[in-house]
């Protein structure tokens, strides 16, 4: 049959890939031995090995547990419903994952900084960095989530088609709401990792596994893509609360993002949400919502920058922005 790959061809392909991998390993080894001759006679420090295994072992277990935690609801959705329903859910999850770029970028800077301050015992500087970062994440993530939800339906209509717009919008709302909480909780997660408690990550993820799969089975069976979004997002929210509780108990770090100007922050976010809801009743086009939403969020950002952030926080965020930009340019 045309287009069918024979088993012999597959074996040859696997053999070729394996041969290239062995060749690459050999070349890397030759270069390494040339520039680091001591690698020819390695010595193992038992203390160092125990430390690495303790930290790496916890990360490995956490990573293994995270695989079913991150995709289990999709298999259950396909089992109870259809691959079409999985497609509706996957479209919502793909768009919602845009929010994760915020904590992923920030953690590149925060993880080494928090680890350095923790190991040096600089408690006051560590506490200040943590709370300022928490405040910044809150003030950036919530309006970003509101903006993403604001353009969700017209974007899905344009990107994937009207059918996906009908079936994927509500799951996307759920995912965006839960990811908003989880994105802010990346900070306590990073703090746990920076303090060397990888085993804690493993315990949390392993503890979530069975309850999550049971809840996902029930919700996906009863509610389809909406149930899958609720199961996946609900696990993120529960995990976020757990990590906030861990760092509060072990490190004495608070969980309120803007304790000194909280009322003003909430008022500004409420005003932004109300403005977006009002605009959504006026226009349903993606271009119209994108332009109006950008103006509303820009106004929110300007007022927040001037009235909520202190001068020191403005300088710190500006420096953080320059650091992130520099890292991205260096990576390119």
Question: Descriptors for this entry?
Answer:
mainly alpha, 332 residues, 85% helix
How would you sum up this structure, described in words?
With 332 residues, the protein is an all-alpha fold. It has a domain at 52-257. It has twelve helices and no strands. The longest helix has 54 residues, at 198-251. The relative contact order is 0.11. The model has no long low-confidence stretch (mean pLDDT 86).
Give the gist of this structure:
Helix content is 85%, strand content 0%. The protein has 332 residues and is mainly alpha-helical. The protein starts with 6 loop residues before the first helix and ends with a helix.
Architecture blueprint of SSEs:
Elements: H1 7-35, H2 46-80, H3 83-96, H4 101-120, H5 123-150, H6 152-159, H7 162-184, H8 186-194, H9 198-251, H10 262-280, H11 286-307, H12 311-331
Helix pairs in contact: 2-3, 2-9, 3-7, 3-9, 4-5, 4-8, 5-7, 5-10, 5-11, 6-7, 7-9, 8-9, 10-11
């Amino acid at each position: 049959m045309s287009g069918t790959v024979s088993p012999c061809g597959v074996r040859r392909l696997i053999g070729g890939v394996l041969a290239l991998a062995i060749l690459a390993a050999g070349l890397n080894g030759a270069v390494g031995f040339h520039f680091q001759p001591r690698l020819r006679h390695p010595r193992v420090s038992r203390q160092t090995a125990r430390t690495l295994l303790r930290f790496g072992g916890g990360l490995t277990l956490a990573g293994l547990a995270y695989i079913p935690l991150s995709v289990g609801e999709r298999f259950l959705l396909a089992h109870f419903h259809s691959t079409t329903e999985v497609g509706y859910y996957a479209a919502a999850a793909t768009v919602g994952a845009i929010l994760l770029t915020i904590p992923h970028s920030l953690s590149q800077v925060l993880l080494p900084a928090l680890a350095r301050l923790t190991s040096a015992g600089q408690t006051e500087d560590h506490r200040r960095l943590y709370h300022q970062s928490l405040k910044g994440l809150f003030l950036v993530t919530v309006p970003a989530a509101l903006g993403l939800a604001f353009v969700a339906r017209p974007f899905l209509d344009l990107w994937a088609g009207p059918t996906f717009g009908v079936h994927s919008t509500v799951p996307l709302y759920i995912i965006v709401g839960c990811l908003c909480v989880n994105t802010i909780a990346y900070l306590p997660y990073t703090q746990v990792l920076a303090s060397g408690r990888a085993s804690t990550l493993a315990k949390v993820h392993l503890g979530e596994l069975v309850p999550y799969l049971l809840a996902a089975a029930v919700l996906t069976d009863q509610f389809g893509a909406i149930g899958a979004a609720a199961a996946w997002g609900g696990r993120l929210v529960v995990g976020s609360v757990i990590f906030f509780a861990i760092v509060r108990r072990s490190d004495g770090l608070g969980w309120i993002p803007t304790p000194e100007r909280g009322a003003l922050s909430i008022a500004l976010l409420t005003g932004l949400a109300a403005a977006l809801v009002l605009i959504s009743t006026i226009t349903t086009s993606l271009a119209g919502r994108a332009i109006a939403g950008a103006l509303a969020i820009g106004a929110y950002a300007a007022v927040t920058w001037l009235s909520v952030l202190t001068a020191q926080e403005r300088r710190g965020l500006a420096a953080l922005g320059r650091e992130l930009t520099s890292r991205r340019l260096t990576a390119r």
